[in-house]
Amino acid sequence: MENGHAKNLVAVIGSGNWGSVASRLIASNTAKLPSFHDEVRMWVFEEILPTGKKLSESINQANENCKYLPGIKLGANVIADPDLENAVKDANMLVFVTPHQFVEGICKKLVGKLRPGTEGISLIKGMEIAVEKFSEATIGYKKDKEVATRWAKLFATPYFLVSVVEDIEGVELCGTLKNVVAIAAGLVDGLDMGNNTKAAIMRIGLREMRAFSKLLSPTVRDNTFFESCGVADLITTCLGGRNRRVAEAFARNGGKRSFDELEAEMLHGQKLQGVSTAKEVYEVLTYRGWQELFPLLSTVHEICIGQLPPTSIVEYSEHTPNLSIINGSNAYY
């Protein structure tokens, strides 16, 4: 108890590179903030390392994730736990840092296992924070700014600035859709089309992200796309993210090697987000009859599944949509 209030207990669900970075960041703050318990449990999807040792045991013994974040100490108050239920036991703040395709299955396992009133947050990936380079992030909230501010306090450091905006849907969609645009950027790199073409793809991608988000959720705010979760994260992901890197390799191989094959070869256990997200977005576009309105988002999926060649990433521009028909006269250019 602290001043008559129960302390907040944080659990991190996920232990890849960003999950490990997040655990390190959070543990540093919980050790200093009196309103939080020191200990941070990090759920680990158990793996057997080449040494024969379990990943969770290795993390706890060395205080670092030798597979996904080697050379970076996590903090003595980070405890790796391969048991999901035990990792979240008694926690009232859950931080989800797993590939989005696994979240549903994890949440189903947690039904009935959490404290009443438990809060959760999902994170966008980022590596610069691990070595304490200046970075920033955005937390979206709906109505309760006090809760958002508590989360911001948990993550904020002098080198990691956290802002809060009243737009959950906008922040979430930015974090999701930027991975699809990063696939497009990587294809351009793999085709050696140059920075001007890549910049054009990023601009068009941001335009489609904004239009798609506002069609899907009319409450999405324009200003959200100018926060760090919007244009800044899009630029970062298109310049150096894993989606861009694997897409570049895909294009250099003429689309003859699948994304699954390249992912396994290049990422060593980490997962792409852009390919699966592109599929999900395409399903929404097809269901709602919006494919012609979003040629870039549609084309990325069609290239990923081999329906179109990588060169189609620029050919689609011959069919520029008239987005002014969306929402009456409100064009999202």
From TrEMBL:
Residues annotated to bind substrate: K125, R242, N243
Catalysed conversion reaction: sn-glycerol 3-phosphate + NAD(+) = dihydroxyacetone phosphate + NADH + H(+)
Entry-linked InterPro entries: 6-PGluconate_DH-like_C_sf (IPR008927), 6PGD_dom2 (IPR013328), G3P_DH_NAD-dep (IPR006168), G3P_DH_NAD-dep_C (IPR006109), G3P_DH_NAD-dep_N (IPR011128), NAD(P)-bd_dom_sf (IPR036291)
EC number(s) per entry: 1.1.1.8
Domain Glycerol-3-phosphate dehydrogenase NAD-dependent N-terminal: 10-135
GO cellular component: cytosol
Keywords: NAD, Oxidoreductase
Ranges for domain Glycerol-3-phosphate dehydrogenase NAD-dependent C-terminal: 167-315
Binding site for NAD(+): G14, S15, G16, N17, W18, G19, F45, F102, R242, K271, Q273
Highest rank taxon of the organism: Eukaryota
Gene3D superfamilies assigned: N-(1-d-carboxylethyl)-l-norvaline Dehydrogenase, domain 2, NAD(P)-binding Rossmann-like Domain
Molecular function via GO: glycerol-3-phosphate dehydrogenase (NAD+) activity; NAD binding
Catalytic-site annotation from UniProt: K178 (proton acceptor)
Biological process, per Gene Ontology: carbohydrate metabolic process; glycerol-3-phosphate catabolic process
SUPFAM superfamilies the UniProt entry points to: 6-phosphogluconate dehydrogenase C-terminal domain-like, NAD(P)-binding Rossmann-fold domains
Family statement drawn from the similarity comment of this UniProt entry: Belongs to the NAD-dependent glycerol-3-phosphate dehydrogenase family.
Protein name, per record: Glycerol-3-phosphate dehydrogenase [NAD(+)]
